[in-house]
Amino acid sequence: MSDPAPAADGEVMVDVHGVHKSFGALEVLRGVDLRVRTGEVTVILGPSGSGKSTLLRTINHLEKVNRGWISIDGELIGYRRSGDKLHELKEKDVLRQRTHIGFVFQNFNLFPHLTVLENLVEAPVSALRRRRKEAEETARRLLERVGLADKTDVYPRQLSGGQQQRVAIARALALEPKVLLFDEPTSALDPELVGEVLDVIKDLAHTGTTMIVVTHEIGFAREVADTVVFMDGGLVVEQGPPAAVLDDPRHERTRAFLSKAL
Amino acid sequence: MTTERRALKIVPARHYTRWAAAVAVTVLVAQFAHGLVTNPVWEWGVFSEYVLSETIVDAVWVTLQLTSYATVLGFVLGTVLAFMRLSRSPLLQTVAWTYIWIFRSIPMIVQLVFWFNLSALYERLGVGIPFGPVFWSVDSNSLIGTMGAAIIGLTLHQAAYAAEIVRGGVVAVDHGQLEAAAALGIPRLRQIRRIVLPQAMRAILPTAGNEIIGLLKGTSVVYVMAIGELFYQVQVIYGRNGRVIPLLLVATAWYVVLTSLLSIAQYYVERYFARGANRTPPPTPIQRARRFVRTLRTAASRRDQPVIPPKRMGDSR
C-alpha cells in the first residue's frame, strides 16, 4: 500500500485507492482506483449494480470501506493514520470532513418541513458556525445562480422535481465544498425536467468546480466530462477523455454498454 | 343533441332506508334529550350548585397539575428512552427495552400504591458513594410527599408508552433525511432536534393526543392515594350528601370540557407540524366559518343585482 497522496501533490483533489466494499456476501467494490484533479469533471458510467453509486457514497463516508483508503485534498476520509495503522475517526470528525464534500442525491432529500432558504442556511449555521445573516446572503446568491431567486420562502413540496434538485445543488454549494458529488441527479426526474438540472451542473463545470457525477446521461458526459470512467462488476473497466472512452472504447463490456445506451 | 339533453330533468335517487334510519335516530336522540331535561334524578339544581364551587374548581386544578407534570416529564423521559432503544449501544437498547417492558406490565394503580408506600421499601433516601458511605439522607416520605409520589408514578408509567410513541414517529421519518443531514455535516444532536423530531411529530401527535387525553382521565386513579383531584373530591361530596348522579355529572362535564380543549390544542399543534407537508394547507375551522359567512354575504348582496357575466367575474380576481 502506497502513502495517501500528500497535499504537496496539489493537483490531485480526490484520491481513491484500492477500495473494496461488501454488503454481507455481496462484493460491490472490488479494488477501485480513481484520481480526480482539481477543477476536473469526472463522469462515472456503468450498468445498474456496477457499484458506481456505492463508490460515490464511500467518498463522503456514507459507506465505510472494507479495504483501501480515500483522501480528499490530501486528508484521509474517515480515518487517521499513525504509522501503518488507520484509526477510525469519531462521528464528529467525519461530520466536519463532510462539510468539504457536497453531495447531491437522486431523490433530492430536501428537508420538507423547512423552507427553501432554511434548507440552504441550516448546515452553514449549524456545522460551520456561520452567522445566520451571512448564511442567508450566501443562500440568496446561490438560489439566484440556480434560477430560483423567487422561491426562498416556499416549501420543497411546492416545487417541481427539477426545481427541487436545483435547490439541493444550491444547498450542497452553500458549504463551499472542495468537491461536489452527484448521485444520478436526474434519474428521478420527468424527461422534460432533466435539461434544467443538467444546465446548472454544466454551468458549475465551466466555473471550475471539481465534480464527480454518476449518471446515465451519455450526452452530458460527452459535453462536460474531462474524464469518463466506465465501471462494471465493482471495477473500473476503463477511463479516459470522453472522445476515447465513448467513441473508441477498448473494452468489449464498454462497447456493449454504450451500444445499448445510445 | 345538446338542446335535447338540456331539456332532460335529473331526478336524484331516493334513499328510503336512509331516511327511515334518520327518523329513528332523531326520535331516539330527542327522547334522550327530553329525559336529560325532565328526569328529576339528574338533579340539575345540585349540578349547577357544585359545578363551579371552590372545592370542585380546586380539584380540577389538581387534576390539571397531575396531567401536565406527567405529560411533560413522561414525554421527556420517553424521548430519552426512545433514543436509547434506537442507539447503537446494546446496553442502552436493553435497558430501555426492559424499562418499557416492566412499566407496561404493571397496572398503573398497583404502581401508584407502591410509590405511596415507598417509605416501607426505602425508609431514607440519600447521596453518597454507590455501595459505600452515605453523606446526606432524608426521610423518603417527607422528600416526595403524596403529590410527588403520584407524579412520579404517573410519569414513569407514561414514559413507557411515550417511548414507543416517539420511537414510532422517529422510524417513520424517511432514511434519506438522516443521510442528507449527515452528508451536510450537521452535528448529531442538531440532526435529531432540527431534522428528525419535527418530521417525526406528524406521526407522534395523533397517538400522543390519545395518550394525553387518556392520562387526563387516568389521573382519577390517584383517588386511591387520597389526593384531592376531581374524581376524589366528587366522591367525598356525594359520600356526604348522597347526591351521586348529579355529582358524577359534575365530574363528567369537567372531563368533557378539558378533553375538548386538549382536542382543539391538538388540532392546531398538528397543523403547525404539517407545514410543508401539503402544497396548500387546508383552512382551519375558523377560516372555513369566515369564508362561509363571506360567501353568504356576497350571495345576499348579489341577489338584487343582474347576473354578472362570467367574463367580469374572471377580471374581478
From TrEMBL, chain A:
One of its GO terms (cellular component) is plasma membrane. It is found in: Cell membrane. Pfam families: ABC_tran. SMART domains: AAA. InterPro entries: AAA+_ATPase, ABC_ATPase_HisP-typ, ABC_transporter-like_ATP-bd, ABC_transporter-like_CS, MetN_ABC_transporter-like, P-loop_NTPase. Its main location: membrane. GO terms for molecular function: ATP binding; ATP hydrolysis activity; ATPase-coupled polar amino acid-transporter activity. Keywords: Amino-acid transport, ATP-binding, Cell membrane, Membrane, Nucleotide-binding, Transport. It is an enzyme of class 7 (translocase). Its EC number is 7.4.2.1. It is a peripheral membrane protein. It catalyses: a polar amino acid(out) + ATP + H2O = a polar amino acid(in) + ADP + phosphate + H(+). Residues 14-258 form the ABC transporter domain. Belongs to the ABC transporter superfamily. This is ABC-type polar-amino-acid transporter. The lineage of its organism: Bacteria, Bacillati, Actinomycetota, Actinomycetes, Kitasatosporales.
